[in-house]
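Class, carefully examine what follows:
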Amino acid sequence: MGVIRSRPMLPTTPEAGRESRRPRPVGSVLHELDRALRSGEVRDHHPLATGFEALDQAISGGLKPGELTLIGGGQGIGKTTMTLQMARNLAVGGARVLYVCYEHDERFLLTRLLSLETRQLTREQSDEGEGMRLRDLLSRIERAGSRDNAGLHRLVAESPTLARAAQSIALYADNLLLMRGSGSYTDLAVLAAELVALRDADLSTPCVLFLDYLQKVPVHPVPATETERVTRVVEGLKDLALSLGLPIVAIVAADSEGLRASRLRLHHLRGGSAILYEADIILILNEKHRIVTKQNLTFNPHQAQSFHSWIVCSVEKNRSGRQLIDLEFRKRFEYACFEPVGRPVAEALIDERIQTE
């Protein structure tokens, strides 16, 4: 999907947002609500399920129009894996999803979707089912590319598992758009233009933006500090979500202190206080084996070893519902995914806010 040249008049900075809004009488807002109720517009703005069942229950059904959700975590913990899986689930459900990644290209993301689909297919048949591991898939692609008459048709013809995975992707292929973001020019204005084009292509279908990741979004002219740049980006994303009436999900990086901490918390997200204030929902990912209390590690060593297979997803902020909820999801990184069911964490966790173990 190319960059749209005629960009919409949408606020991309706090100053532009203030200029584009005027005071409105309450009567005008009441009239607008009446119109929305009569037209079914309110009914159409129901939450969009992420497909992570325990998480959807915790955040009142899923992602909501006009809300900004941030997902933080350390390096290699699975932020891209989780958000790409969410994007896939939303596309399967009928939403149109734009996934913009500043660190990986579209083919990198596609191979992970293929591996995920092989796991999804076998998981539906049996909880113990397996799929095609990502490393095996990449090896097959490399071998197929070295042959004469190479092509996707030949790759899938040699593997029924891959053929079924490709068929599964084809069912939502038009709904999920992948875009390689540039740290030089894929700024808020470009993102706004792409979203407007996506929305206008079918006004009856909900749209969602995933951003991987927030600190990579460029700002022009370049601000003097990273805090100022991140503030402008996160405020712009929130304005964009409200202006277009769609959910936005963005990955956020942790600062150096957070990467060293026993447990990553809100104050470890890189970029200043605007991240905490502007977001409607903030999820923090931690490795379970690092944040359970010592008692859990001491009394049951076998169980403690199993903690390495799980991440804890904490709902640290939820503007419209419950927060400070700790959920756990099993990692299946060999298939580029998580097990989507999840559950509340039963064990006691350390709490960096009060420094207990």
The beta strands are 68-73, 96-101, 176-180, 207-212, 248-252, 281-287, 310-318, 325-332, 337-338, 343-344. The mean pLDDT is 85. Residues 117 and 167 are 9 Å apart (CA to CA). The chain has 16 helices and ten strands.
